[in-house]
Amino acid sequence: MSLQIYNTMSRKQEAFIPQEPGKVKMYVCGPTVYDYIHIGNARPAIFFDVARRYLEAIGYEVDYLVNFTDVDDKLIRKAEQLGTSVPEVADRFIAAFYEDTEGLGVKRATRNPRVTEHVPEIIALIEELVAQGAAYPSAGDVYFRTKSFANYGQLSHQNLEELQLGIRIGIDERKEDPQDFVLWKSAKPGEISWESPWGPGRPGWHIECSAMARKYLGDTLDIHGGGNDLQFPHHECECAQSESLTGKPLSNYWMHNGFINIDNQKMSKSLGNGITVHELLKRIKPEAIRYFMLSGHYRAPLNFSDDTVEQALGSVERITNCRVNLEHRLAAVSPDGSHTAGWHLVEDAPIGALRYEPASGDESLDTRLQELKARFTAKMDDDFNTPDAITVLFELVAEANQLLKQPVVAARSIDAVLGLMDSMDGVLGLLPTVDEAAGLLDAEVDALIVERTKVRSEKNWKRADEIRDLLAEQGILLEDTPQGIRWRRK
């Protein structure tokens, strides 16, 4: 089976066929950078990171854009509160976004375009819409004529009359129709602004993505993503603007992730139950947060609670401990600790399969690993079904644990299991980051363990106890195994 994606536009699962073979143009709406991101923002960051990783794992070159909205009413209010400028607020929270998302194992996008760096392109796009009659200036603002676009409502599957109920409409004499939406907002006294043919002002929210997506990825995207809350009005308005201008679909596949509830309640400002990633990372391991986000299908709602995160942490530790045990056993059977060529890259692997093949030298093990690899691929091909893909990863953990129980194991066999585990985790990103993983093999800890073994043989129990206490203070757990002492962090 080739990759299938549930398309919000068609409301059905479709075979993924990019416009250009081997390349994917992917745009995901990013945050408004006026504060730290909350866990609702973290869900699309993590899920679409996994989607991007999987597309790359099966051989695609992915041009992946996540924008920053760095000017709007929220930033203006925040700048006033802090007694600073809008650009300084944006810079501060863009830096915080990178810190928080990279802490969650999210790879940086190919580009993170900022609205303030693309005002000329936005103005040019608005001018084109005005010239063709799809937009009109009014008292320094510019509005899109919603009724000029016959397909308005196609993404949310509602007609204009139904959508009327979903729009907060006040009396605004500047609009020809209450459903028209703003493309350019005239500046109020003292506000940040740019010169335009309609006077000083700033871009409306919807127009920014149309302009930046068009500049970097062309008229039609392969994948456009974001949270369910963006489906209407943001993405609906993007469709209207872009497709009015080009006569082409803005995106061939639309993907939207579900909401996150907090203790079975909707996360909202009115309830005051929002949780920022910045605070969450101070008390919860990032791998546990990432596991929680991927433990449910991306289109389904998720419920965040202390219990669900505790369960996620236990699951991640099972995977991590298994991998550490494999590395430890491999070092025992291979004096220099090096890996043999248990897995090798398949240069001409077909699209739709992870590009690795096992070569453990054990025919029965190779067969089981091939089956697990095929099942993992099938789950990810089924609209990025991460919870079922994680289930396959745990089956690999069980296979690895059985292998480790054997008194004699070939290095090639261990290496083959490690290779498959790493290729699966290369998609899911559940294991500790490189820096954290390196900590598990820290030379100073290894040296202390060697010293402790030596002083114990000399019956220097005082020094042996001192070393154990020192390691315990650092959160290091020692375990006796048939291959000698191994250690791990709590």
Can you offer a commentary on this structure?
Residues 375-439 form the Cysteinyl-tRNA synthetase class Ia DALR domain. A motif ('KMSKS' region) lies at residues 266-270. Its cofactor is Zn(2+). It holds the Pfam family CysS_C. Monomer. The protein has 490 residues and is of the alpha/beta class. The chain folds into 3 domains: 4-283, 3-Layer(aba) Sandwich (Rossmann fold), CATH 3.40.50; 307-434, Anticodon-binding domain of a subclass of class I aminoacyl-tRNA synthetases (Four Helix Bundle (Hemerythrin (Met), subunit A)); 443-489, no CATH class. The chain contains 16 helices and 17 strands. The chain has helices at 39-57, 73-82, 86-103, 119-131, 160-164, 205-217, 231-246, 277-280, 286-294, 306-333, 363-381, 386-405, 411-428, 434-439, 443-457, 461-473; strands at residues 4-7, 12-15, 23-28, 61-66, 135-138, 141-144, 181-186, 201-203, 221-227, 251-257, 260-262, 265-266, 302-304, 343-345, 356-358, 476-481, 484-489. The strands form 6 sheets. Strands 4-3-9-10 form a 4-stranded parallel beta sheet. Strands 5-6-7-8 form a 4-stranded antiparallel beta sheet. Strands 12-11-13 form a 3-stranded mixed beta sheet. A hairpin with a 2-residue loop joins strand 11 (260-262) and strand 12. The longest helix has 28 residues, at 306-333. The radius of gyration is 27 Å and the shape is elongated. The chain starts with a strand and ends with a strand. Residues 434-441 have low confidence and may be disordered.
